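Hello,

Our lab assistant flagged a job as stuck in the queue for most of the afternoon. It eventually completed. Since we weren't sure the result was trustworthy after the delay, we are filing this so someone can double-check. Below is the sequence as submitted and the structure that was eventually returned. Let us know if re-running is recommended.
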Amino acid sequence: MTENSKNLRSNCPINFAVETFGDKWTLLVIRDLMFKGKQHYSDFLASDEKISTNILADRLQKLEFKGVIFKSADPENASKYIYSLTEKGQALLPAMIEVTAWSAQYDSLTNTPTDFLNTYKSNKEQLIKMFKAQFEN
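-- returned structure --
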């Protein structure tokens, strides 16, 4: 199902994005899936930001409903689920890279990896390809 802005406050593209991930936790969940290889509920709980269990459950459910992530049974442990980005979620990669670079430029304390920044500055398309290749594994 493709979501659209029919039932949102407006049809503005920025409003659509805000309605999808406009809180302080959702982009961090996407970050963990996209850049940190996290897949299980417990992986997200171990992030530095210390998301609470009820907020995490809510954000995962919301992202799944909106078609940004997919939840599947873990073949190695039937009581666990594996979370992954859908094509819609993977399409956020260029925006997430830009937000990361923007933060590195304007936050002197950011922990953006140096190799990320060097590749971003010298060959942004290569950086995008590198992360896209991880989605295929």
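-- support follow-up --
The delay was a queue issue, not a problem with the job. The result is valid. The chain has a mean pLDDT of 91. The CA atoms of residues 19 and 110 lie 26 Å apart.
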